[in-house]
Design brief:
The chain has a domain at 363-452: Anticodon-binding domain (Rossmann fold, 3-Layer(aba) Sandwich), CATH 3.40.50. It contains 18 helices and 16 strands. It has helices spanning 14-33, 47-50, 55-60, 77-81, 85-92, 102-111, 156-171, 184-194, 200-208, 210-224, 229-239, 245-255, 260-276, 343-353, 373-388, 402-411, 422-427, 445-452; strands at 37-38, 44-46, 64-66, 93-97, 120-129, 141-150, 177-183, 284-288, 302-308, 317-322, 336-342, 366-368, 393-395, 416-419, 430-434, 440-443. The strands form three sheets. Strands 1-5-6-11-10-9-7-8 form an eight-stranded mixed sheet. The protein has a five-stranded mixed sheet with strand order 13-12-14-15-16. The longest helix has 20 residues, at 14-33. The radius of gyration is 29 Å and the shape is elongated. The structure holds one RNA strand. Homodimer.
Length: 453
RNA sequence: GUGGUUUUAGCUCAGUUGGUUAGAGCGCCUGAUUGUGGUUCAGGAGGUCGUGGGUUCGAGCCCCAUAUUCCACCCCA
C-alpha cells in the first residue's frame, strides 16, 4: 500500500523538532517566570464534555471517536435508518479528541477543586485537533500553549497576559506584532444602546471593514443587515473610532454613558492599561480594537488577539476572560482568564522571517572516524570518555571509506571530526579536524575535551 | 460546508494543437583521490506521469470520479 498521513497533519523531521522544541521551551520559560505550573490532560475527552462549548459550528469541527467493539449493534434502529449523522452521533461515539485546552482545563478544575489552591495558575502545552479544512497556517492537528488562571478576578492577570505575550514573542525574535484588546462588556454596551443584541456580530464584522469599503460602505452593509438609520447614527462614534487608545476610550465613554455594562467594560480596559503602565513592554504594540469579537461564546470580559505585522498570517494567539466556564460543569462562581499561543503559526512566521538560530539544530558535536577493526577498538573508550564529559559524540559504526564518513559528518552538520589511524594510535595524539575551517591539529584526548567543552 | 488550484525522478519543476524511447537542475551512487567533507571532472542508478474509469488508431496532455496540496470565503491558533 501507498504510505500517507491524514489531511492536515504533518511529520516533523529532526530540524523541525529542534525548532519546535526551541519555541516550546521559550514560551514555557516565560510561563514559569510568571508563576504558572504545568498540567496535562488526556488526548481524548468524553464527547459530552466538549459538545455545546464551542457553538454549533465548533461542534461540527470536533473529531469524534467511534465506540469500541460493534458500535452499531446498540444504535437505535429508527435513528440509523433516518440516515442523519447528527441523530446517531451520540449512539456510536462517546469520546472525542480535544478541541482546545481551555474546556478540558475547566473540567480539570471542577474535578480537582478540592486539591487545588485558588487562585490556580496553570500552563498546558499539548496538541489539539479540529476537523477543519486545512489552508495556510491552519492544520487539523496543532499545538496550543495555554496559560489560564482561575479564581482571581483581578485585572492584573489580564495585564500580565500582555506582558507574557510580549516577553515570549520578543524572546523568539518577533520584532513587530500587535496585541489587540477588547472587552465583551463594551460590545454588550453597544448592543444595549441600539437595543439589538442579536445583531452584534454583524455589526462588528461590518465596522471591521471600514478601511476596505469606507464609511458609506459600512453603513450600507449595516442597513442590509437590518439596522435602521437611527441605529446607524448611534453607531457612528464606534464606526469612526480612531486615534490612540485613550482617544478611543474618551469617545466611547460618552457614547456608552447610558449603558451600565458598557461603562464597566471601559473601566476594565482602563484598569488594565493602568497596571500595564508599571510594566515595560519590549516589542508589543497594544491596541484597543472594538471589532474584535472572537467566536468562542464563553468570553465575558477582556478579549485578546495577537497578530504579526511582519507576515501575512492569521492570529498567532488569543484569549480572554470567561466568568462562567466551570459553571457548565456544575461549579459556579469561579472566574477564569487565559491566553493561548498558536505554536504552529508562530513556527511558520519565524520560518518566513528566518528567525531560527543555527544553534537550535546542532546535535552531534564530534564524529570519530572508523578506519578498521583495530581503530574501532581503540576508539571505543575515546567516545565513552567524550560522552562522560557531556560531549555529544558518535563513532562511525562501520569501517567505511573515509570519504563517506566525512560526507556523513558534513551532511549532519557535525562541527568536529576526530581521526584515529595507525599514527594516532602509536602516538596517542589524535587528529582533531574543524569541519568549518578545515584546520587540523594533533591533540591528546584531554586536550580535545578541553577544546570542545 | 462553498468556490478555485496543485499533483510528472529523492527534492524543485519543464513537457508545444493529443503522435516514436518523458526531460532539466539539485540530490544520491561509483570513480579520478586505498587517510580527508563542503569545490571540480567523468560515469551511473532512479518514473505504473496521484489513483480508478472513459474518449481515441494513439493520452503526461481531453472527459468523469476520487484522493491530495495550496488559496479565498466562513470560522479559527
Amino acid at each position: 500500500m501507498k504510505p500517507g498521513i491524514p489531511k492536515g497533519t504533518r511529520d516533523f523531521s529532526p530540524v523541525e523538532v529542534a525548532r519546535r522544541t526551541y519555541i516550546f521551551d521559550t514560551i514555557k520559560t516565560v510561563f514559569r517566570k510568571f508563576g504558572y505550573q504545568p498540567i496535562e490532560t488526556p488526548t481524548m475527552e468524553n464527547l459530552s464534555t466538549l459538545t455545546g462549548k464551542y457553538g454549533e459550528e465548533g461542534d461540527q469541527l470536533i473529531f469524534k471517536i467511534l465506540n469500541s467493539g460493534d458500535y452499531l449493534a446498540k444504535a437505535d434502529e429508527q435513528k440509523l435508518s433516518a440516515r442523519n449523522s447528527k441523530l446517531v452521533t451520540f449512539q456510536i461515539s462517546e469520546k472525542a479528541l480535544r478541541y482546545d485546552l481551555t474546556v478540558p482545563f475547566a473540567r480539570y478544575v471542577v474535578m480537582h477543586q478540592n486539591d487545588i489552591a485558588m487562585p490556580f495558575k496553570r500552563y498546558q502545552v499539548q496538541p489539539v485537533w479540529r476537523a477543519d479544512r486545512p489552508q495556510k497556517g491552519r492544520y487539523r492537528e496543532f499545538y496550543q500553549c495555554d496559560v489560564d488562571v482561575v479564581g482571581s478576578e483581578s485585572l492584573l492577570n489580564e495585564a500580565e497576559f500582555i506582558c507574557i505575550y510580549d516577553e515570549a514573542l520578543s524572546n523568539l525574535g518577533l520584532k513587530d506584532f500587535t496585541i489587540k484588546i477588547n472587552n465583551r462588556k463594551i460590545l454588550s454596551g453597544i448592543a444595549d444602546i441600539i437595543g439589538k443584541p442579536e445583531l452584534i456580530v454583524d455589526m462588528t464584522v461590518a465596522i471591521d471593514k471600514l478601511d476596505k469599503i469606507g464609511y458609506d460602505g459600512v453603513t450600507k452593509e449595516l442597513a442590509e443587515k437590518g439596522f435602521t438609520a437611527t441605529d446607524i447614527e448611534k453607531l457612528r462614534p464606534f464606526i469612526e473610532l480612531s486615534g490612540t487608545n485613550t482617544d478611543k476610550l474618551d469617545v466611547m465613554k460618552q457614547a456608552l454613558a447610558a449603558s451600565e455594562i458598557g461603562k464597566k467594560g471601559i473601566e476594565e480596559i482602563e484598569t488594565i492599561f493602568e497596571y500595564l503602565s508599571s510594566f515595560e513592554l519590549n516589542n508589543a504594540k497594544v491596541e484597543l480594537d472594538i471589532t474584535l469579537a472572537r467566536g468562542l461564546n464563553y468570553y465575558t470580559g477582556a478579549i485578546f488577539e495577537v497578530k504579526s505585522n511582519e507576515v501575512q498570517m492569521g492570529s498567532i494567539g488569543g484569549g480572554g476572560r470567561y466568568d462562567d466556564l466551570t459553571g457548565m460543569f456544575g461549579l459556579k462562581g469561579v472566574t477564569g482568564a487565559g491566553i493561548s499561543f498558536g505554536a504552529d503559526r508562530i513556527y511558520d512566521v519565524m520560518l518566513e522571517l528566518n528567525l531560527f538560530p543555527d544553534s537550535a539544530t546542532v546535535s552531534t558535536q564530534v564524529l570519530i572516524t572508523n578506519f578498521d577493526k583495530l581503530a574501532e577498538k581503540y576508539a571505543l573508550p575515546v567516545v565513552a570518555k567524550l560522552r562522560k564529559e557531556g560531549i555529544s559524540s558518535e563513532l562511525y559504526p562501520a569501517s567505511a571509506k573515509l570519504q563517506k564518513q566525512m560526507k556523513y559528518a558534513d551532511a549532519k552538520n557535525i562541527p568536529f571530526v576526530v581521526l584515529i589511524g595507525d599514527e594516532e594510535m602509536k602516538s596517542g595524539k589524535l587528529t582533531l579536524k574543524n569541519m568549518h575551517s578545515g584546520d587540523q591539529e594533533q591533540l591528546d584526548i584531554d586536550e580535545i575535551i578541553a577544546k570542545l567543552k
